[in-house]
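Give me structure tokens for this 149-residue protein.
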Amino acid sequence: MLHLPKKMLYALEAVVDIAFNARPDPVQSKEITQRQGIPQRYLEQVMQQLVHAGILKGVRGPRGGYRLARERRRITAGDVIRVISAAEEEGDSQIFTSDIGREVVGPLWEEAQASMLAQLDSVTLEDLCRRANANCGDEVSKPTATFDI
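Here you go.
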């Protein structure tokens, strides 16, 4: 079964969490970790990649965190996946070493990826927030104020 790497899924989950919860304050990474169960080591890496790519904005300070760099309806699931995919592919060398791999399997895999990205490009964060609201309700909403010291 074709699946996305965990890092890509975590990135998409974190961005949807931010889109759903970043009003009026930015969302802190510790809140995302608590709500979504995403390991902190993955989260910090993907958040920095998404800030660098212009998907998120980092907000500094004691009430800092992350917010979307553009409107929810202007960011697609495909945008998020491409950022993480590009970062993952930087270290990859040529996977296929045979003629069949390069000439047959490689192009097939590229077609499958293009199809999947086209589907992901048709889904905006606005769409995913609507799904979250309909299917998850209060389970994904921002917790009430905490007084951590």
